[in-house]
């Protein structure tokens, strides 16, 4: 990796992480406040709609965002064609979803979903207008711009949602949250990178990206289905109240991944695409990312599993006890998803999206079947448990086919995660013991003492020389974000190559 690219990528991670941290603080505040102002049923109603609209939004994107990031060059003519194509598809799917509102309501036997679906459906058009603009800013490595826009859009939506909830708007306050955030995001992105529609046309190069995007789309739809079939099944079988408990637990379960893994992923796609032909630098980047993921997310999920009950009690208040049990069980899936997040980077940047599509065609139906079996076997808790166990098992074929026949090896992925993965069970055990010991002191004491004590084994592992080397490697990676890249002397041989 050149000095310039190393600086941009590491700084991009920090800037994007800062943006995700800001968003997560706001989102966490909204969870705390809105969970006390709204009923579980309100969250369940919106989740029912979004489980359907979300998969349609993937069809709207058609994998073009990933195809744009993978492509080495995109001309102004291509950007114009992408804008026309994305907007047209967004408008068409908005009309289709609006027309299917009665069918969505019939699926859940919930008449209130008709009007809610009609109001939510225009987000598909807005996303169609925004997708190429967002991809262009990301492709240009303008991570600070994206981070600030997304943090402020989240804040805008949350503030208006809280006001609406105080006014007694119920589920409509959640609609306000999503709509306000999208409108702000649209305005800010268009100001940051004004779109140029030009003459209506879709060039041959754009259709080539569509073909690449087709493989990505199939993979994304299958992946989305496997991550949202649980919402459909719970909503259909147990109703909006049970689904509300599940979605609140799921939103907290996703926070660590949104913080780190999504941050690394946003930066990794454009950076690794530029390193496709530099095998050693590519592997170095993968090892660095794997090390960060291992030391941050894996122990965190181990601690969350032990403090889930008091965490839900403190954050959501009374009436959400089932969410605490679910959050503890979902932490198994959290560990699996954290460890498996790099699979998508590898498939995309190594040009193996067709292989990923075929793999997902096998593994994602297995997960969906696991949802159905788990719900039948043990209710919503059984569903969460089966989901976690299957996610762990499927890491093996996922990475096998992601790196088979490439220059990336199993050691590049697993060795950096090995040491933190061995410490994680100790973190869980210490935290669990402390939570039980201080139970008479209340939920807040359990949360604080259990969380802090759970981190002690991770801190103590620094006495191991190998762990200290890992820590130095992480710190060196972060220092690159502050260090300006060295400019090559124009008279040097390297500068003239």
Describe it.
This protein has 19 helices and no strands. With 497 residues, the chain is mainly alpha-helical. The chain starts with a helix and ends in an 18-residue tail after the last helix. The model is unreliable at 481-497 (pLDDT under 50).
Please outline the major beta sheet: none
Order of helices and strands: HHHHHHHHHHHHHHHHHHH
Radius of gyration: 23 Å
The percentage helix is over 70%
Shape type: globular
The figure for the number of domains is 1
Cα distance spanning the termini? 16 Å
Unreliable stretches? 481-497
What percentage of the residues does DSSP assign to strands (E)? under 5%
Describe this structure in a few short sentences.
This protein is mainly α. Helices cover 83% and strands 0% of the residues.
């Amino acid at each position: 990796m050149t000095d310039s690219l190393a600086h941009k990528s590491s700084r991009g991670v920090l800037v994007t992480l800062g943006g995700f941290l800001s968003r997560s603080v706001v989102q966490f505040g909204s969870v705390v406040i809105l969970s006390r102002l709204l009923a579980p049923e309100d969250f369940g109603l919106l989740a029912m709609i979004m489980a359907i609209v979300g998969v349609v939004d993937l069809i709207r994107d058609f994998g073009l965002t990933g195809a744009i990031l993978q492509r080495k060059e995109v001309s102004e003519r291509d950007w114009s064609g992408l804008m026309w194509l994305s907007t047209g598809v967004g408008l068409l799917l908005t009309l289709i979803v609006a027309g299917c509102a009665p069918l969505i309501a019939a699926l859940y036997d919930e008449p209130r979903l008709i009007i809610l679906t009609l109001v939510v459906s225009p987000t598909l058009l807005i996303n169609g207008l925004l997708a190429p603009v967002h991809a262009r800013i990301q492709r240009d490595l303008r991570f600070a711009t994206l981070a600030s826009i997304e943090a402020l859009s989240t804040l805008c939506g949350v503030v208006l949602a809280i006001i609406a909830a105080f006014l007694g708007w119920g589920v409509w306050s959640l609609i306000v949250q999503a709509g306000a955030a999208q409108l702000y995001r649209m305005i800010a992105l268009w100001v940051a990178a004004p779109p140029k529609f030009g003459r209506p046309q879709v060039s041959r190069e754009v259709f080539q990206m569509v073909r690449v995007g087709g493989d990505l789309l199939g993979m994304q739809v299958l992946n989305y289905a496997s991550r949202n079939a649980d919402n459909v099944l719970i909503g259909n079988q147990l109703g909006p109240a049970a689904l509300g408990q599940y979605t609140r637990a799921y939103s907290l379960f996703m926070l660590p991944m949104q913080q780190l893994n999504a941050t690394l992923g946003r930066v990794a796609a454009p950076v690794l695409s530029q390193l496709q032909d530099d095998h050693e630098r590519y592997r170095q980047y993968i090892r660095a990312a794997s090390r960060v993921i291992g030391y941050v997310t894996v122990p965190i999920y181990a601690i969350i599993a032990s403090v889930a009950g008091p965490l839900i009690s403190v954050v959501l208040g009374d009436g959400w006890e089932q969410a605490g049990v679910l959050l503890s069980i979902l932490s198994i899936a959290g560990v699996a998803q954290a460890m498996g997040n790099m699979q998508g980077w590898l498939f995309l940047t190594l040009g193996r999206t067709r292989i990923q599509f075929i793999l997902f065609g096998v593994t994602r139906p297995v997960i969906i079947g696991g949802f159905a079996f788990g719900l039948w076997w043990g209710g919503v808790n059984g569903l969460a448990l089966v989901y976690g166990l299957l996610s762990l098992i499927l890491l093996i074929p996922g990475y096998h086919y992601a790196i088979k026949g490439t220059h990336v090896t199993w050691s590049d992925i697993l060795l950096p995660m090995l040491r933190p993965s061995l410490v994680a069970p100790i973190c869980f055990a210490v935290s669990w013991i402390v939570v039980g010991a201080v139970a008479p002191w209340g939920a807040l004491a359990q949360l604080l003492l259990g969380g802090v004590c759970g981190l002690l084994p991770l801190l103590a592992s620094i006495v191991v020389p190998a762990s200290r080397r890992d820590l130095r490697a992480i710190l060196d990676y972060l220092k690159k974000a502050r260090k300006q890249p060295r400019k090559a002397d124009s008279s040097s041989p390297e500068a003239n190559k």
